[in-house]
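=== RUN LOG ===
request id: a7f3
mode: sequence -> structure
chains: 1
length: 200
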Amino acid sequence: MVQSRPYFPNIIIAAVVVCAMMPLFVAAAAQPDRNFLLTDTVCARAAAAFFSHPAVAPARINITVAEGTGAWVVRQHLRQTAAQRGITLTDSLGPHYDIRIAECGVRYALHPSSGDSLLRTVRVELRAGTVSSPPFTIIEHHTDAIARADVALVEVPKQEFTTAAVPPRPSSAWDDILEPLVVAATCVIIVGLLFTVRSQ
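=== RESULT ===
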């Protein structure tokens, strides 16, 4: 008479594998926007805000964007926005605006409720003015939350404005004591189940 093998250990092993793979499926389904895309979007809003400022009224203006982090992205959106609004950018005619990029890039901060997450802020600050008018400041930003594990996915190392220092994860009792115990106990259970299945 052939004795049927118990399937309960197999079910436990399958459940453990599914639970372990679940974060990968969730991450694949909801990947955050890349820092380059967000910076590009915020630069576009900053360019629109510049041309909407009361100090920028003429239909012909001359713009100089000082060299700095993300300057080429800002220039690109200033040209695009000017063309959309029918404003002519010239090298000599009209008032001359000097634009300095005070900030263009991303920064990370600790998430208030999750050590596995970060607050991501993309901020663009432009300071502009003419010889005959007082300077003014344009600030645009975007803030959201991303997983620490996604930082490498959203950054583009070749573009300096898409990278930033990641604050260290705050330690807790879970990280220092409970998590290693849970991991060790899980490994012991899995090994025990494997030997149980092989001995049947």
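=== NOTES ===
Strands lie at 60-65, 88-89, 96-110, 117-130, 133-147.
The chain has one domain: 30-169.
=== END ===
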